[in-house]
Write a structure and sequence with these properties.
With about 170 residues, this protein is an alpha+beta fold. It contains three helices and seven strands; from the N terminus they run αββββαββαβ.
């Protein structure tokens, strides 16, 4: 009985030290998977042809511009506690999935492309898919980053992100 109690106590302590289910991994844990970015692009395009979302800890940055590097707008924000949990959960789910590099035919016939960027074990992995057609295994991460991008485009907070005070809604 004492051995069983010791084993259960040890397992419980290990689970709590690991953050437990639904909890973000410890900040700076290089071995934990991290969703570090996302983006979209349209190849045959003039003006706003690409958007890039960067996630670094609780900081997020979203910029939209053309292929020549000019930014149409750039806004920043901070992930809310629910956003930190959601980003960590999506990253763990992506890392546990058997992902391929490319789904469908992104940007064929100028339909656009979307990308998710996952960092894990010191490597970055990009997964690209057709704009508006995320595969089922990417849908939760797709919906999350799409919501972050929308909040940073409109400067309206949502449950996952708070745009900073300098946020300016994107021009039409």
């Amino acid at each position: 009985m004492r051995a069983t109690t010791t084993i259960l106590t040890t397992l419980l302590a290990m689970a709590c030290a690991d953050g437990g289910p639904g909890e973000p991994d410890a900040p700076g844990d290089a071995t934990a998977p991290a969703l570090v970015g996302a983006g979209w692009s349209f190849g045959e395009c003039v003006g706003r042809c690409r958007g890039e979302l960067g996630i670094d800890g609780d900081s997020v940055r979203y910029s939209v511009g053309g292929f020549a590097g000019e930014a149409s707008f750039e806004n920043r924000g901070t992930l809310a506690p629910a956003g930190l949990v959601a980003v960590a959960e999506r990253a763990r789910a992506l890392a546990a999935s058997d992902l391929v590099e490319t789904y469908g035919c992104p940007d064929c016939t100028d339909q656009g492309a979307r990308t998710l960027v996952l960092a894990h074990d010191g490597l970055e992995r990009r997964v690209t898919y057709e704009y508006g057609r995320p595969p089922r295994e990417l849908l939760p991460a797709h919906d999350l980053v799409k919501g972050l991008m929308h909040a940073l485009t409109t400067c309206e907070a949502n449950e996952h992100v708070d745009p900073d005070a300098r946020c300016r809604p994107a021009p039409h």
